[in-house]
Amino acid sequence: MKIKSYFLIVLGLAALGLFPVLVPNPYYVHLVETILIYAILLFGLDIVVGYTGQVSLGHAGLFGVGSYTAGVLFFKLGLPFLLAVPAAIGVTAVFGAVLALPALRVTGPYLAMVTLAFGTIIQILINEMTFLTEGPIGIKVAKPIFFGHKLNEVEYFYVVAVLMVLALVVVHRILKSHLGRAFEALRDSPVACDCMGVSVYRYKVYAFVISAGLAGLAGALYTYSEEYISPNTYNFELTILFLLAVIMGGRKTRSGALIGAAIVVMLPSLLSDINLFRVIATALAVGVAAMAAYNLMRKTRTVRELAVPVLATVAMSVFSFQLENITDWRLTIFGLMILFVVYYLQDGVVGFARDFLARFVRPKTHASVGSSNANLRRWTSTHTNASAGTGPLLEAQQVLMQFGGLKALNRVDLRVMPGTVHGLIGPNGSGKSTMMNVLTGIYQPTAGQVLFNGHSVTGQTPASIALSGIARTFQNVQLFGEMTATDNVLVSLHHIYKSNIVDVMLGTTRYRREDAAAREQAASLLDFVGLTAMSQEQARNLPYGKQRMLEIARALGLDPRLLLLDEPAAGLSPADLPELMSMVQKVRDHGITIILIEHHMDVVMGISDTVSVLDFGQKIAEGKPADVQSNPAVIEAYLGSGAQAH
Amino acid sequence: MLTIENLQAGYGKVQVLHGISIQVPQGKIVTLIGSNGAGKTTTMRAVSGMIKPTAGKITLAGVDITGLDSHQIAKRGLAHSPEGRRVFPTLSVLDNIRLGAFVRYTKARPQGDIESDLQKALELFPRLKERTHQIAGTLSGGEQQMLAMARAIMLNPEVILLDEPSMGLAPILVEEVFNIISRLKGEGVTMLLVEQFAAAALKVADYGYVLENGRISVHGPADQLKDDPAVKAAYLGG
Questions:
Q1: A599 inside 8 A of chain B by CB
Q2: Does A358 touch chain B (CB under 8 A)?
Q3: In terms of DSSP H, where are the helices of A138-177?
Q4: Phi then psi for A395, rounded to 5 degrees?
Q5: Residue A372: predicted pLDDT
Q6: Between β-strands B190-194 and B207-212, what pairing exists: parallel, antiparallel or unpaired?
Q7: pLDDT for B84-138, tens place per residue?
Q8: Residue A459 sits at the chain B interface (C-beta within 8 Å)
Q9: In chain B, what residues touch A302 (CB-CB under 8 Å)?
Q10: Residue A247: pLDDT over 70
């Protein structure tokens, strides 16, 4: 695998380096140059779209900001390339931070609208601010000059190629690091992300700023490439084109960005030649028909599912030979092709190719993963020897949580002593989960306060509460679904990383040391909950019970002093319960205090030191398990007369 | 009534079910027990068409429903109350229940003639009756589970698939849910039940199948399975 990917890298670099030699035609050199520039922007756009899952229709605007920053600095001040480009990156990054502001409040279609408005405003401003941008007339720029030598088209091509490779490496490193994991985590579950001490607020801004910086670089390079810029370039269509390139190429891959860039740049040009179009259409029809036949043979698809794509591509091929002139039809055909790709290849060209190739490769066995168990460091908490103080570790005082007229929590007091397991039970809707959300800062209580370790945490953000030592699991599992089990745990180990973005970009020893430590810790946590064999599986593919175990491992990654478990046994079979109970006890023996919400009475009564009972937002009983169990009020409200032993 | 023959299914490259066969006779409750990841929920999803089986045959009242889409299967009389109680969170309780009868609104019966069934469902779940105009998303977990069951009943189905009805419910509600299942059984409803509380499930069921790693390991009448030492040790918690 390693050798194969090195081979591909060398091949790619060689192709890039030799291209202007092999194809000296300046038109094609310029075309590929444009692809490389677009690819830089798409790397950035993919961070926002693919990784953080936000829609941005403002990237043409950012591209324009980068272009015009470089253009104006050259035109008005005569700044050299080496100053203008960093300035363009910096200015665009600031605009990126501005674009991030709406993303902190709205998502989905609303965010699309706001970013679209942003892009439009940028274009209008470029048009109107004639004192700076020369308005619709545009700006003329000369190719950069290095040491008195003005670069020609081919030399500039190499500048762009080197910067593209640099951008690729940097983006790849960022996305493979804890920063990239933070981006993905906030996409899959913002709530869980915050509760793992990774501020959604901060990392959304980071994502937009990095993305904008790349758009700025691309914009500046574009200015020098075209040698003339005007406001009309940075329009709505360009922004759609960028988005399509990410989707068609395949999100969450760098090769996808390159292929996407190639498609959107090349296709319109290729389509202008009728003969070439005929070849492409026929090749496509043959390819799709072959795929269909293959799928039919393996019976993975039905005839009905395959009929539409086959007929459509064949019709297009026939149509191409009927046409005498393509110019009038170019955009229509381009649009249809895009529709086709988006509909049938939802993971983009790269995703499709990966799935297709995966069929011929035998699935990897994870047996080797388990064998390294012997030299695995056993997980331990740093609080093992924490002095169990005399006061409570957590104290909720008169907590009132009001939703409209409903008092979900009505002046509840809760004292959790260090080193204990504190059970919290009550009927569904009695306020247990609301209490969890108040303790972890997801809800701000209407009145009352929460003291943790003697300090008030009321009013703090979930991320800072998490970092101060309160970890939790969720009643309705909140894993980062598209990420592997290991990566899920690594998100909560984010606090281990002190490296900044420069460390990540350069791959310094500090970063590598921290990364190794975090991975070792993650492996021992997965071992602790018995998930070593599934460490490379996507979280969403794990069975429900295993997902709950993964949530516990992830919560422990925070190295908490207090762990809130919200119905850990839901979805487990009775046979699994002893294992869960011994695990909870082991966690407590590591010096971690536990609040346990659970409906399985065997579990709660078996391992709790104290049990509190909530009903309609009020505490109706508290005490030792046996006392609570025989309390008539508890039996009536919660246990039921049968009190069957589950 | 519902026959599953040699069913194989999975997700992507991962095969979960390796050929299982289950019979659910008319008017009986059949339960499917097994540990986590054995394939219980996958079986339910394959039967109701949420995932496509890769091999095998599923017939409902003698009609082959293998490979049909979920909505077509529902139309043929199979209701699925999924794991994790997927109610429509922004709709009212009443609208949720009515939607369960969606396929019964036809040209011939524009009103669906569901009024009597609606009343019956509300009688069965008095807690819902008190909250008909509440938004479903604001119900507590137990109430949402009841709503999911009420919605399934409204289809007036031949067979109900009930996946983990007691998950995350207070003991008092678990009792209530099983009482309701017994009452439905008394009314002659045919049901395939997946449940972690194997003991309680076997108490109410007529017949049971034990699923292990995507294969049926043991099956038999519920009261026999209850006393089977192997089943006892593995699934009934000793």
A1: yes
A2: yes
A3: 153-176
A4: -140, 115
A5: 46
A6: unpaired
A7: 778 898 999 999 998 988 877 776 666 667 788 888 888 888 888 888 899 988 8
A8: no
A9: 67
A10: yes
